[in-house]
Design a protein that fits this description.
Blueprint lengths: L1 H18 L2 H69 L1
């Protein structure tokens, strides 16, 4: 039993020593850098999506305004034409 306990203690000590090895620290640092870069890239992509959405909304509103003006002009022209037809019928 003492041999098992000693072996487990030795294995645990080796595991702890490996956690603090320079290679593992370097790998952890590299992994953190990759994760940070991924988060920054994702944030930039989300921002680009927001900008594109805002531009699309603005373009849609401009198109809507232009179509409203065109529709108003078409309606006014039709009213004027109808009025002219009615006036010509009275003469």
């Amino acid at each position: 039993m003492r041999i098992i306990i000693a072996a487990a203690a030795a294995l645990g000590a080796l595991s702890l020593a490996a956690c603090g090895s320079p290679a593992e620290k370097a790998a952890d640092k590299q992994a953190d850098a990759v994760e940070t870069q991924g988060e920054q890239t994702a944030d930039a992509m989300k921002e680009q999506g927001d900008v594109a959405k805002d531009a699309a909304v603005a373009q849609g509103e401009a198109t809507e305004d232009a179509m409203d003006k065109k529709a108003d002009a078409t309606e006014k022209a039709a009213e004027q034409k109808a009025d002219a037809i009615e006036e010509s019928a009275k003469q």
